[in-house]
Design goal:
The structure holds 2 protein chains of 2 kinds. By secondary structure, chain A is α+β, with helices and mostly antiparallel strands. Helix content of chain A is 22%, strand content 22%. In chain A, the strands form 3 sheets. A 3-stranded antiparallel β-sheet of chain A has the order 2-5-4. Chain B is an alpha+beta fold. The longest helix of chain B is centred in the N-terminal third of the chain and has 30 residues, at 42-71. The two termini of chain B are 43 Å apart. The chains are: A alpha+beta, B alpha+beta. The interface between A and B is medium-sized, with 22 and 27 residues.
Chain lengths: 132, 183
């Protein structure tokens, strides 16, 4: 994997929203929009720019949430440090969110609480692209 | 229509008209003298009584569903949309998991339980979580109560609630849910 320079705090990353239920009627987002899926072992998947979404988003989606990298880092606390790590020229992962999934379809309740807390904090700082 | 359980089957007469199904009609002055075309057996009486008894629970379900849809319409509509999704999972983007049948039925059950036991609670938000499960969230002032229904494992069903600092969770039981909704 080619090394990338750390993303600056004012940079904005974009998350595609796969379900309409995750967008409230006022346009804000629910915490499920930033929840890591079971397959997201590297972190919550985001795009660096809107051009990347146009080129690489193969699945249809209902909306886009944007969040500043600095705001994500601000959500860190003593227990976990959140960061946005770029892995390709168009893609980055939000790392540090607790991953509660363990084998046999079980979840660690303590980690699930923390995951939800972090996802809520990120969602509160997220906006639609034209708002940011 | 008769909904009383205190029915004497002998008060009814079996009417058999050619070309139409047989039916039981209450004896009146006009048909009092009308004799059944065949002798009623125990099985005939049992079947007729059973039909009448079954009318009450059906009517109760119908009335209850109507009340539920009036009180919590958004949740009801969302459940109908999820029902279509459960029947046809290909409607959902393949990047996420469609809602599972187990999650749908469990959510349905808990919504009805919550509605019966605490009808004053506000309409909850029914949100599929993208992993095959469903979250049911009540926002009551600053308080947030959320049922997390897992797609397949009942041991993972939990209640999340927001405290002063952050989220906490507890086991999903009716007592816990009602305590959180009422207090």
């Amino acid at each position: 994997m080619a090394p990338f320079v750390a993303l600056e705090c004012p940079r904005v990353v974009f998350r595609t929203i796969f379900r309409k239920e995750w967008i409230r009627s006022d346009g804000s987002f629910k915490w499920q929009a930033f929840k890591p899926y079971r397959s997201d072992t590297l972190g919550v998947s985001t795009f660096i720019d809107l051009e990347g979404i146009k080129e690489h988003a193969t699945q249809p989606f209902f909306g886009i949430a944007s969040v500043k990298v600095g705001r994500v880092r601000d959500c860190s606390n003593d227990a976990s440090i959140l960061d946005v790590v770029q892995d390709t020229s168009w893609h980055a992962n939000i790392t540090g969110i607790p991953f509660p999934y363990i084998p046999d379809n079980l979840e660690d309740p303590t980690l699930a609480e923390k995951m939800r807390d972090f996802c809520t904090a990120i969602t509160e700082n997220a906006a639609r692209p034209h708002d940011s | 229509m008769i909904y009383s359980r205190n029915i004497n089957v002998d008060d009814y007469v079996l009417v058999q008209n050619p070309g139409s199904p047989s039916r039981f009609v209450k004896k009146t002055e006009t048909n009092l003298q009308q004799e059944p075309t065949r002798n009623l057996t125990y099985w005939d009486k049992y079947k007729s009584a059973q039909k009448i008894y079954h009318l009450r629970p059906l009517q109760a379900v119908e009335e209850f569903t109507e009340q539920f849809m009036k009180a919590w319409p958004e949740a009801g509509i969302q459940m109908v949309e999820l029902l279509h999704e459960v029947k046809d999972p290909s409607r959902v983007n393949s990047a996420i998991e469609a809602t599972s049948k187990r999650a749908f039925l469990t959510t349905f059950l808990w919504l009805f339980k919550a509605f019966i036991k605490s009808p004053g609670a506000p309409c909850p938000d029914v949100v599929p979580n993208g992993e095959g499960g469903i979250d049911v969230e009540w926002t009551i002032g600053d308080k947030l109560v959320s049922l997390q229904i897992h797609k397949s494992n009942p041991n993972n069903d939990r209640i999340f609630f927001k405290k002063d600092a952050g989220f906490s969770s507890t086991e999903l039981t009716l007592v816990n849910l009602l305590n959180l909704l009422r207090n």
